[in-house]
Amino acid sequence: MRNINNVGWGLVILVIQVATIGLCSWKIQAESSSSDVMKASNAATLLGGGEINEKLRTFQTAINDADKEKASLADEPNGFQPRIHKAHLWHALEGLDRYPNYFDRWKSRIKSREQSEDHSVSHNKDSDDEEKEIDDLLKLEHVLRDTADAVRRERKRIAQQRTTWMQKIPNFLQEHPQFRKFWDAALYGEDWGKWCNGILHPKVQELFFTTNTTTGAIQLKTCSDATVAQVLSGAVRVEWNVSLLTELLDEECSDVYSIPILSDAFCHELIQLVRSLRLFFAQDTTIEQPRFFSLSQLGITWLDDFLFRVLLYPISIHLFDNIHLDSYHSFVAGYAAQPNCVTPRQFLVPHTDDSEVTLNLCLGEKDFEGGLLEFGPMRGERTKTKLQTDTVQPRIGYGLLHVGRLMHQVTPITSGDRFAYIVWTRSWTDTRAKQCPCCWLNHRKETATCICGPQWN
Ligand SMILES: O=C(O)CCC(=O)C(=O)O
Ligand SMILES: [Fe+2]
Question: What are the entry keywords (predicted)?
Fold first, then answer.
């Protein structure tokens, strides 16, 4: 384990790869090229941003086997299939307002195909084309409406699921009154002393908090006037200075940092809570069972708020090249050699997370064996293809911070139970906004086959 001081901050900065033709640069490029064309030619003949955007498409319908079935269901004389080809949907969404001639691309193609297919039939081609154009617009509208409906249905399902779970909590607390404090709203508004009492790891306590010599109140060092409620709600932002963080963070392996967060005792209490909740819910056959519990979704939001606002948000700014996180999702994952409903995993395959930055906080239990974390290369980097054997032994109460793009896996657990409190965070302004998500997922470096690439624009 290396102290972060030794590696220097230059090395810890994650270089986010920006796609050669990222969305933003693509827009700027398209606009400036079109204005050049506008100047050089007769503006009246150029519609929708200039001829560079109105060039004839040479799109070939190339669909894989899985899509063939769907395709056969679609009544497609002209190849415009926004449900199947995301490029069609993308261009219609991005292009319609800026390129009013969008559908003419397809119209011209249909026209030439029809002409070459049937020279003998003589009917009014212009009106046929117009019908197809309208047909395409309707098709697009249907796809958009169906997608919006699916999103609405999913949101409703999740909201109902949460309501059902929340309605069960009073019964749970009647059976398990010892867990009432987790739902105690007073924790939000009270002074920081409560945080130091039993919840936090002593090292965090010592470095993050200070005692006001006149009032005796415990305060957060870097914004001493802020109350717990102000910080947890995001009304007051926490900013950690580099020297404080260097004292607290260790680099466990390349691009993975550890930080002490929770006390052993509190980790143990959390495990008891999760175990009891799972067993309580499992008795109820009338409700949909969550695979993993998210404490926030069950009404305990203060812990996630604390992890996000006091640690993840301010630390990511320093650690991961000025990433500004804006949302989070957390869950507690349980592992055992013989998986069961409380600990459904035995190991975890190599993967990357659906997150910008991940916090992986080990809760224990004590003495579990196996369940090591192995970290590999960054997704999108071609150079290393095999998962490296950078192994990290999770420590109770310690969190590991890494970007979601870093490959990782969990080795099989051989004895005992292992629980990890995982927080996935997202940011609208970082990797996902700068790089085409599809290229990112497919390790694609060249843009030739990307719908954001030049041949499409
Ligand atoms: O259990 C762990 O330590 C890792 C879990 C994880 O990577 C995940 O759920 O995405
Ligand atoms: Fe993961």
Answer: Dioxygenase, Iron, Membrane, Metal-binding, Oxidoreductase, Transmembrane, Transmembrane helix, Vitamin C
d(CA 363, CA 423): 13
Q: Give the distance (Å) from ligand 2 centre to CA of residue 358.
A: 8
Strand partners, 390: 375
Q: Collect all residues with Cβ–Cβ distance below 8 Å to 441 and sequence separation of at least 6.
A: 379
Please choose from 351, 408, 424, 425 the residue to mutate so as to test ligand 1's pocket, defined by most ligand atoms within 8 A of CB: 408
Q: Provide CB contacts within 8 A for 445, sequence distance 6+.
A: 380, 382, 439
CB 396 near ligand 1, within 6 Å: no
361 domain-assigned: yes
Q: Report every protein residue that has its C-beta within 5 angstroms of ion ligand 2.
A: 353
Atom of ligand 1 nearest to the CA of 345: 1
Distance 173 CA to ligand 1 centre (A): 29
Q: Is 256 exposed, middle or buried (0-12, 13-18, 19+ CB in 10 A)?
A: buried
Terminal C-alpha separation, the chain: 48
Structural domain count of the chain: 1
pTM over 0.90: no
Domain that holds residue 314: 228-426
Phi, psi for 348 (deg, rounded to 5): -140, 130
d(CA 412, CA 7): 31
- Would residue 274 count as lying in a domain? yes
Q: How far is Cα 122 from Cα 133, in angstroms, rounded to an integer?
A: 20
**d(CA 91, ligand 1 centre) in Å:** 36
CB of 333 closer than 6 angstroms to any ligand 1 atom: yes
- Per-residue model confidence as pLDDT tens digits over 26-57: 232 333 333 333 333 333 333 333 334 444 44
Ligand that lies nearest to the alpha carbon of residue 374, given by its number in the listed order: 1
CATH classification of the domain holding 366: 2.60.120.620
Say how many Å lie between the CA of residue 181 and the centre of ligand 2: 30
pLDDT digits 0-9 by tens, 331-375: 999 999 999 989 999 999 988 888 899 999 999 998 899 999 999
Measured in Å, residue 375 CA sits from the centre of ligand 2 at 10
Q: Is the CB of 345 under 6 A from ligand 1?
A: no
